[in-house]
Write a structure and sequence with these properties.
heterodimer; A: mainly alpha; 11 helices; 1% strand; B: 333 residues; alpha/beta; Rossmann fold; Alpha-Beta Plaits; 2 domains; 40% helix
């Protein structure tokens, strides 16, 4: 048996992905409707953001375009969790019905195999929307451009994504222990809505909560400070890539721990 | 020859909550948890050779699935040892998965939206099947079943029978040493059952694959298994050739007669006349179970003709199903 490295997994992933997209395209009505739905969701989100800022041109020293930057940043960084890890939402059902056992019987990494099954193409629309918002805000703020900035941007976007993925993994994995884990997942994922606001607008209690307990501040706020306020970057921003990797690794271990103790239902 | 599966004294215990009844009970359960230990599998040993087809039988809840889960590595035994193709399944789950194939009757393991051929291609990558072996296997499949109409159909559009067939083909695709089939013919019509039995038999013959089959359908057992293992309440009741089992109960035959008149009343009379036989009656037939080691069917028939006017008769050999039913009820002793 050959070694199963990154190339092995990438090859399988791309193959499943290609097939999945092909089969989704074949449901044309479903595809069109969900695309329209996704566009509406994004527009609605933007409108509520815009209403807020047309009333208060600046929140706690954060101007319109800075906040817009944060908004775009959070949308882009949420794309991977939406596209690649969407099957976490089905985990509870799979575990409850006993169907999860089928994932335990293949000679490849269980977590990979499970997540590879679903690719949510709708996330790509959010990505484009977020990217346009981000670039628009970037230009309006006159931040300038350098390769180093772009690199920083990419690293910190990835960091933010990892944290979001970690939060979702951990929340979804609770279903291996508790029956009604939907509420846990739903509760945790609702917190991501707070990611698009500068954390300084919250009270100290929530600031602490969003930084250390439910680290949504790392999804957009801390990473984007590196670009937006390069003169006063807190230490937390610089170490956020490490926090991202650490959190992801922990959530992966937690998920796998639950999955390996899974014993299925009777048949 | 080295056995392909070696099980020594495995036991699996589960901790279950003693649930109290009613809402009041549920609330009390929240605060005081009273566990009991349930032994799903109790000290089972067996050894299976490469190429055998073993029927693994038992009533619902006997511990069949638990044993299969331990052999596939999903569950860890509480005590005892299992070696599957030289691996300890639980500790070496991925390696074990490479050597086995598993089919659950009503649960497909294929990608729901994909046509079968695409699932096969992904499986080819996952199991790292060399091109030559893959092509050879597809050719073999083509010679055994009419696979063409299945290949380009998404799994979700298949009938249950087609899906089961596809699942079995997918389980054998990487030419595993052992295939576990958990109730493969459940819910299928007679012709599909026959098709699936022929397929399993052919694959076992051609590839020398060991097959562990759990089923409640004695037709599967009769068609496929040389050896059967019966468990109940976690304990092993029987492990031997199927012919041995039939021989064991082979002296029983059922004589069915039809007599004009009230059959129930006749049945009672016959019971009195033939105390060594068990007699029952339905709307059409009086059934008399004859133990041929005590008396012969011909003697019983002669006796009946002496008293009644027999209009019709049938003679039935005891079926495996009845044998196993007897074992479930009484145990082999």
């Amino acid at each position: 048996m050959k070694r199963k490295g990154l190339r092995f997994y990438l090859r399988i992933y791309l193959k499943i992905l290609a097939q999945d997209i092909k089969s989704k395209m074949s449901y044309r009505a479903d595809f069109i409707i969900s695309t329209i739905g996704m566009i509406c969701t994004n527009i609605a989100g933007f409108i509520s953001f815009w209403i807020l800022f047309s009333r208060f041109p600046s929140i706690n020293g954060w101007g319109y375009y800075e906040s817009l930057f944060l908004y775009g940043f959070s949308l882009v960084s949420l794309t991977p969790v939406q596209c690649l890890f969407d099957n976490n939402w089905n985990l509870r059902q799979n575990v409850y019905s006993g169907d999860f056992i089928k994932y335990c019987l293949r000679p490849i990494n269980l977590f990979f195999y499970y997540q590879s099954e679903v690719f949510d193409i709708k996330g790509l629309g959010q990505f484009v929307f977020g990217l346009v918002t981000l670039i628009y805000a970037w230009v309006k703020l006159g931040l300038g451009f350098s390769v180093l900035m772009l690199l920083k941007m990419i690293v910190f976007l990835l960091t933010a994504s990892l944290i979001m993925i970690a939060l979702q993994n951990a929340a979804a994995a609770t279903c291996f222990w508790i029956q009604n884990s939907f509420y846990v997942l739903d509760f945790v994922m609702k917190f991501k809505d707070y990611a698009k606001y500068p954390i300084t607008i919250f009270s100290p209690v929530f600031r602490f909560l969003f930084t250390f307990i439910m680290p949504v501040a790392f999804i957009a706020y801390y990473p984007s400070l590196v670009i937006l306020r390069p003169d006063a970057v807190p230490v937390l921003s610089w170490i956020s890539p490490l926090i991202g990797i650490g959190f992801f690794w922990l959530s992966y271990k937690f998920w796998m721990h639950g999955a390996l103790k899974y014993s299925g239902t009777g048949s | 020859m080295e056995p392909i599966i070696e099980i020594k004294n495995i036991t699996k215990e589960f901790k279950v909550l003693n649930r109290r009844e009613g809402l009041k009970g549920s609330i009390r359960d929240l605060f005081s948890r009273d566990y009991k230990i349930v032994r799903a599998v109790d000290n089972i040993s067996m050894s299976i050779e490469q190429g055998e087809i073993v029927g693994y039988l038992g009533p619902n809840g006997a511990g069949k699935s638990t044993t299969i889960k331990m052999m596939t590595g999903v569950l860890e035994p509480s005590s005892g040892e299992i070696l599957v193709s030289g691996n300890v399944p639980y500790r070496n789950r991925t390696k074990n998965a490479q050597e086995i194939g598993v089919v659950f009757g009503q649960r497909t393991q294929l990608w729901w939206a994909l046509p079968l051929i695409e699932s096969f291609r992904i499986l080819k990558d996952i199991y790292q099947i060399p091109d030559a072996d893959y092509d050879e296997m597809l050719k073999l499949y083509q010679s055994l079943v009419d696979i063409e109409p299945l290949l380009h159909k998404p799994v979700r559009q298949m009938s249950l029978g087609q899906r089961t067939l596809s699942d079995i083909l997918a389980a054998f695709l990487h030419n595993p040493k052992i295939v576990f089939l958990d109730e493969p013919t459940i819910g299928l019509d007679v012709s599909m059952k026959a098709k699936i039995r022929t397929l399993i038999h052919a694959l076992n013959q051609q590839k020398h694959t060991t097959v562990i089959l759990t089923t409640h359908d004695m037709g599967d057992v009769d068609a496929l298994c040389q050896r059967i293992v019966i468990i109940d309440k976690g304990k092993m009741l029987y492990d031997n050739d199927i012919s041995h089992l039939k021989q064991f109960f082979g002296s029983y035959r059922t004589l069915k007669v039809r007599i004009k008149g009230d059959l129930k009343q006749y049945a009672d009379e016959i019971t009195e006349k033939l105390p060594q036989c068990s007699v029952s009656a339905d709307d059409e037939w009086i059934s008399i179970l004859v133990d041929e080691s005590k008396t012969t069917v011909m003697q019983v028939l002669g006796e009946l003709q002496h008293h009644y006017k027999i209009r019709d008769m049938q003679l039935e050999e005891i079926s495996t199903e009845e044998v196993i039913k007897k074992i479930y009820e009484e145990g082999v002793k």
